[in-house]
Amino acid sequence: MAEFGFNEHHQNEAINYMRFARSKRVLRLKTIDSCFEELKDSRLVEETFTVDEVREMLDGLQAVVRGEVEMELINTAHTNVLLLRQLFSQAEKFYLRLQSDISELENRELLEQVAEFEKTDFKTTDKLNQETSKPKLAPLNEGGVSELLNKEIARLQEENNKLKARLRTIESQAMSALDDKTKAERALKDLKKVQGEQQLAAQSQEITSLEDTVAALKEDYERSLCTSAASQKDLQENLISAKHELLRVQEQLALAEKELEKKFQQTAAYRNMKEILTKKNEQIKEIRKRLQRYEPSE
Predict the structure, then answer these.
(1) Fewer CB atoms < 10 Å away: N or C end of the chain?
(2) pLDDT tens-digit profile of 73-91?
(3) Cα angle vertex 118, ends 112, 123, to 5°?
(4) 280, 211 in Cβ contact below 8 A?
């Protein structure tokens, strides 16, 4: 069977299957022979038969033989399917995909070679096969399959190493991104702190400037009271404008106080600033009272 590409193991398996097929074939032939013998013993008891009787006996024999042959063909087909199932299952374990060529099953030359093998080599290997175990397919362990498995294992290991390297790279990138995030949060916190301090200093400077402006306006107003009523009206308008500006600033200060209340409501600077504003408000009220005394009666 070397022309079929069979090694010793495959050749033994083929012989085992042919022996199985031959035993089934011999059993079925015996069954068919018994059908004829039964017909001879049960029906051929008379010396003469009519045409109808002969036709009836042949029809009955044909039905019996046809049933036996059909049963054998069906059983052979089903047995071959089970054999293919075993082969395909073993091939899948080694990541192999087997394919069959149905046209080769009717190759007359190959069929004649199988018949010749059955006549010659099949008989010479009977003794060897009797010493072997039961005809059962076993997993193959040949060089080609082992090489294929080694290549597949090497490929999987290489892919696994690539995945590990990629995982390490991603972990490094994640740690770097986490450090950058921490630094950014710290910088943002420091920036907010600096901005808060700058805003407080700017507001304090603005308050001081407004206090100086109010003091100067008060001084000018007092000096103008001694000159003329016209100057008094101008000073009053300036004072009203300054009051509006002061109210605007107070509104801004109120908004700023709401924003910085949580940070500065416990500080001494905040309390001092509040006392100063209270004093200034009292001074403004005093200025209003004095203005009312100098205003001409209607």
Answers:
(1) C
(2) 888 888 888 888 888 888 8
(3) 155
(4) yes
pLDDT score at 9: 66
What span, in angstroms and rounded, lies between the C-alpha atoms of 212 and 290? 20
Q: How far apart are CA 172 and CA 185, in angstroms?
A: 20
On whether the CB atoms of residues 93 and 53 are closer than 8 A, the answer is no
CA 121 remoteness from chain centre: 58
pLDDT digits (tens, 9 = 90+) for 125-140: 555 455 444 444 444 4
Residue segments in the chain with a per-residue pLDDT below the cut of 50: 1-3, 128, 131-142, 298
Burial class (CB in 10 A: 0-12, 13-18, 19+), 239: buried
- Given this model, what pLDDT does residue 15 score? 77
In the prediction, which pLDDT does 227 show?
67
